């Protein structure tokens, strides 16, 4: 393995591997293959799988640092490998049944079988260790990522010989690490290997078996083809490591097979989960793995490392304390290449012999001593461009300025050289439609309008050539002379007066009789139609009674009509009421009919 640059590396590797497995097979049947059994036995519905494979790998790995942001560190790697298949062989039973009748004589001991058997590249179980010679090839891959959380990453930095920053590679810098990978993706194809399927519905004696134990002799071949495919033991791995303190760690590891044990001619790992506390220093390590292994159950082990040598077992403790279904051991030699490390007590990256302040961290340019802060603005003098002026660190220790004096600091001023309001980020307001009303005040910023109409043009909704601002009837076509309202016709005035004359009051009182409400409602509708016109309501009496009393009564009657019209929605400002008593008679007060005519209310249009 060698580095390509500071963040990536390349490695070449090769290895030879061999895996044999037997799954779902009767122990008695397996024993019978190996040696004689002196008793009757029977096994049913066997879906066994036996496979043996050996191959070599030639590969290249590429790894690189994907992220290095101080506390957060991520790296990943990919391996691509060429696979050379040395040999392959498998046998798989399908609903296979076997009955063995023992009579104490090879000529009479009888084995009866049924079901199907599929074989690949082997001719009999006796020849399993020496399958038909042929070779195969294929390609495989491994992929993995590791993330490290490094809250104290600064402690592991130092200044290298070139003056740059490096990490002490021999030290674990993480507080927590998690890795995930998928390994052994791929397969090997044996193009010349023969696949045979046999019908096993038959029986034979021990003598017949010993004479020729081949599948062709014992069973009926029902099909034959070429090409055998061997799947690599693809697996998914998850590893988490917690650094509890400087020397003690807790590791969680899981390995899960991505290949089914039911697949023919495939290799697979046993699923397992392990939790391992460990003690670790530079030249010594102790670890106690506690794991749960598929098919084997709970196990406990022990291991140690002394210098480059490590020895251990994942099941030795379990095996010593009780019966165990698994036993393993491992032995290895790991030779590290350590980098020289400078002595730096204050971890400022400067060798203590060159550090003027070895106990206090400080920058290289100040010979390892901390810099002062003359203006107490929190920025050291070596970085402060305004040493004697208090200013924020984001402005290099200098106070913010306001060149145009508009009370918007230059850092926030979009137009630092032109005076502008705060709400427009220091820029003067524009006038997009050039109508003299700035856009912040212009309700129609893209249309030329009038200043006194908030920058919008005046409208004339009813199209009578009287602008709405001057039109007293903006929704009704009218005349310019009548302020945009239709001119009231003399016939309408006559109708109002006819209505008013028919309004009846209680004798000697100003209260309108209920029978007259319909007439007053009709008068109100006419006034609403001509909303630009104002009206005068004039009350009159005959000459009976004192003149002062008649004036007062006529005024109250005129006011009563005004009050009623206001209650029907007529604006009070459009109405005026007045009483004239017996003045302006329209008939002779000498007759009863004349007096009745003189007791009236007249409506006049006020221009």
Termini separation comes to: 108 Å
Poorly predicted ranges: none
Radius of gyration: 54 Å
Overall pLDDT: 85
Main location: membrane
Protein name: OmpA family protein
Subcellular location: Cell outer membrane
InterPro entries: Bact_OuterMem_StrucFunc (IPR050330), DUF5723 (IPR043781), OMP_bac (IPR006664), OmpA-like (IPR006665), OmpA-like_sf (IPR036737), Thrombospondin_3-like_rpt (IPR003367), TSP_type-3_rpt (IPR028974)
What does this structure look like?
The structure is a single chain. With 607 residues, this protein is mainly beta. The chain contains eight helices and 24 strands. It has helices at 27-34, 206-211, 215-218, 316-321, 490-501, 517-529, 547-567, 592-598, and strands at residues 2-5, 8-23, 41-46, 49-69, 72-101, 110-120, 136-149, 157-159, 165-167, 176-199, 202-205, 220-231, 235-243, 248-257, 272-280, 284-287, 290-293, 297-300, 302-306, 309-313, 330-333, 534-539, 575-579, 601-606. A hairpin with a 2-residue loop joins strand 4 (49-69) and strand 5 (72-101). Helix 5 (490-501) runs antiparallel to helix 6 (517-529). The longest helix has 21 residues, at 547-567. It is elongated.
Outline the secondary-structure elements:
Elements: E1 2-5, E2 8-23, H1 27-34, E3 41-46, E4 49-69, E5 72-101, E6 110-120, E7 136-149, E8 157-159, E9 165-167, E10 176-199, E11 202-205, H2 206-211, H3 215-218, E12 220-231, E13 235-243, E14 248-257, E15 272-280, E16 284-287, E17 290-293, E18 297-300, E19 302-306, E20 309-313, H4 316-321, E21 330-333, H5 490-501, H6 517-529, E22 534-539, H7 547-567, E23 575-579, H8 592-598, E24 601-606
Parallel strand pairs: 22-23
Antiparallel strand pairs: 1-2, 2-4, 3-5, 4-5, 5-6, 5-7, 6-10, 6-11, 7-10, 8-9, 10-12, 10-13, 13-14, 14-15, 15-16, 15-17, 16-19, 17-18, 19-20, 20-21, 22-24
